[in-house]
Design a protein that fits this description.
416 residues, single chain, 16 helices, globular, 81% helix, mainly alpha
């Protein structure tokens, strides 16, 4: 038993660290934006186009790689993906013109799309259903650590150095991580961990999508992506322009957003343990995000500090939703062997929203039309909030036996 738990913990640690490194190879573009716009003489609209190209290819790659990730070894997939993103970031550090940067960054989107689905599949194979929420929260925290490292550590450390370092340093980490997967993590036979997960009904994937209205979940993911990823990409530039602060201060200030993201993930986990219902939890999170977004119409004119806190709250709440929509729900279907496929479908929707918002937000920031940004956020969040009412999720990822077991554990802990 101890050997099995040690193996599980090692696999989780490897998956977690890999996604931290993957985020360093993705968020570095956001950290480097301020220097790129000055040294490479590119506009916010051009940077937005590069961000959108990344998101479109990432979204399309999720559809393809999500399906393939359920058919072949996820270990091999992860190795290729992390090495590919490392090579492309290394290549970006060697260019000095916008067009090759655009092409290489777009290709990076494809290799990044090969990671999340297979990682979720690996974890669903190693952990039972009762660990699903813990896995979701833990893996979602890897994104927060990636952001904080990229913005606060690399962002400030490289501020007075050539912009190429923003891509060179993460590239070396990615290649080293790829070597770890190639040599030390070649797969194997994990312990059976599918008890309590949603089994495959008649009709296969199509039957699940229709029966539990997962197409509606995909639409909600699109709305979430419109907000979450636009904030991830544009936060440093948005705060610099809106608050009139310097680049160094903005990179330090945006650390508030990853910390809020961490709080949002933990809040989602706490609500799930209390409500034991994905639909009710998402409803609460989207409603709170809508209120914060609507408040920005007034706050950005009155209080810069309150504006930053409201923006951070919106981002954090979206990360809480993300941990449920892109981790918890797909892993719940491990028994049907469609984890990677569902991740691909939901992530595709999320990043199509991100691609649309990236361009629109770039134009809005160029014209300093902040009310339009906040109005669009509020409208999208209201739509997502309404759609969660129509969800028809029959299970929360646990069988009745697992749910009773969890309730009994809570009673024992309370008694203590």
């Amino acid at each position: 038993m101890k050997k099995r738990m040690a193996g599980r913990n090692a696999v989780f640690a490897a998956c977690w660290f890999t996604y931290v490194v993957a985020y360093l190879c993705r968020v570095n573009f956001s950290s480097a934006m301020l220097k790129l716009s000055g040294e490479m003489q590119v506009s916010a609209a051009q940077l937005g186009a590069a961000g959108s190209a990344f998101f479109v290819v990432y979204a399309l790659g999720q559809l393809v790689n999500g399906y393939i990730g359920d058919k072949i070894s996820p270990y091999r997939f992860v190795t290729i993906a992390i090495c590919g993103t490392g090579v492309l970031n290394l290549a970006i550090a060697m260019v000095d013109e916008y067009l090759p940067l655009l092409v290489l960054w777009t290709l990076n989107g494809y290799f990044q799309s090969m990671l999340w689905g297979p990682l979720m599949r690996i974890l669903s194979q190693w952990f039972e259903a009762r660990h699903t929420m813990r896995i979701s929260v833990g893996m979602s925290m890897s994104m927060v650590v990636g952001y904080i490292t990229s913005w606060a550590v690399f962002g400030r450390s490289f501020l007075y150095h050539p912009w190429q370092l923003y891509f060179f340093a993460p590239a070396l980490l990615a290649l080293a991580t790829g070597l770890l997967w190639a040599v030390g993590l070649r797969g194997g036979a994990p312990p059976a961990a599918q008890e309590g997960r949603t089994p495959a009904p008649r009709g296969g994937l199509a039957g699940i999508v229709r029966g539990q209205r997962l197409w509606l979940v995909a639409l909600v993911c699109l709305c979430m992506g419109l907000i979450k990823e636009s904030l991830s990409l544009w936060a440093p530039l948005l705060l610099t322009e809106m608050l009139g602060i310097g680049a160094e201060d903005s990179l330090l200030l945006v650390v508030v957003i990853p910390l809020a993201n961490l709080l949002g993930i933990l809040t989602a986990g706490r609500l799930m343990r209390r409500k034991n219902d994905v639909k009710k939890t998402l409803f609460s999170l989207f409603f709170a995000a809508f209120c914060c977004s609507a408040s920005l119409f007034l706050l950005y004119r009155v209080s810069p500090v309150a504006s930053v806190l409201a923006i951070a709250a919106v981002s954090g709440l979206m990360y809480g939703c993300n941990s449920l929509l892109l981790s918890y729900l797909p892993i719940s279907f491990g028994g049907a062997n469609i984890v990677s496929t569902l991740v691909g479908m939901f992530d595709f929707s999320s990043y199509m929203g991100a691609a649309l918002s990236s361009v629109l937000l770039g134009f809005a920031l160029e014209n300093k039309n902040y009310p339009a940004v906040f109005g669009a956020w509020a409208a999208v969040l209201a739509a997502a909030w309404g759609m969660t009412l129509l969800f028809k999720l029959k299970r929360s990822g646990q069988s009745e036996e697992n749910k009773n077991e969890v309730k009994q554990c809570h009673r024992v802990r309370s008694a203590r």
